[in-house]
Amino acid sequence: MQTGRTENDLVPTAPSLGTKEGYLTKQGGLVKTWKTRWFTLHRNELKYFKDQMSPEPIRILDLTECSAVQFDYSQERVNCFCLVFPFRTFYLCAKTGVEADEWIKILRWKLLRYLLGPVFPSNDKPVRTKSPVGYEAE
């Protein structure tokens, strides 16, 4: 047995289901430069920060206001996608196609959840939804 450790130290922790975080490159709004930012997705909020250690987000996007998430091939970059809001379209790029696909899948899943709301069958028992990776929702 290891000493100086608690039982919690020995159990690997997993991030909350339905959440995601990581670096994405974002196109600016007024000035169309590209900057790498740290993004966190939790519940209906997509936040971005200057970097992973920044305590306060630069902006918080409410996904209940987002109308679409889609791949974007109009940029001169690869692995890009966009989030369409009534006030602006945000262009984001991931390092890899797999990473871009993961972001798109979870963002679309979130949009669908907020669009449809909770689903109840005729017997009034809640239906468990699955996240893009097959886990139960938060």
Please tag this protein with its features:
DAPP1, PH-like_dom_sf, 17% helix, PH_domain, single chain, PI-Interact_SigTrans_Reg, 138 residues, alpha+beta, PH-domain like, globular
Could you please describe the fold and organization of this structure?
This protein is α+β, with helices and mostly antiparallel strands. It has a domain at 20-115: PH-domain like, CATH 2.30.29.30. 17% of the residues lie in helices and 29% in strands. The protein has two helices and seven strands; from the N terminus they run H-E-E-E-E-E-E-E-H. The chain has a seven-stranded antiparallel beta sheet, covered by helices on one side. Strand 6 (80-84) and strand 7 (89-93) form a beta hairpin. The longest helix has 20 residues, at 97-116. The model is unreliable at 7-15 and 121-129 (pLDDT under 50).
Q: What is the total tally of β strands?
A: 7
Number of helices: 2
The main β sheet shows up as: 7 strands, antiparallel
CATH class of the domain at 20-115: Mainly Beta
CATH topology of the domain at 20-115: PH-domain like
Secondary-structure element sequence? Answer: HEEEEEEEH
Q: What's the CATH H-level superfamily name of the domain at 20-115?
A: Pleckstrin-homology domain (PH domain)/Phosphotyrosine-binding domain (PTB)
Percent helix range: 10-25%
Q: What structural class do you assign from the helix and strand content?
A: alpha+beta
What Rg, in angstroms, do the CA atoms define? 18 Å
**Rounded mean pLDDT score:** 82
**Which CATH architecture of the domain at 20-115 would you pick?**
Roll
Report strand order across the widest sheet.
4-3-2-1-7-6-5
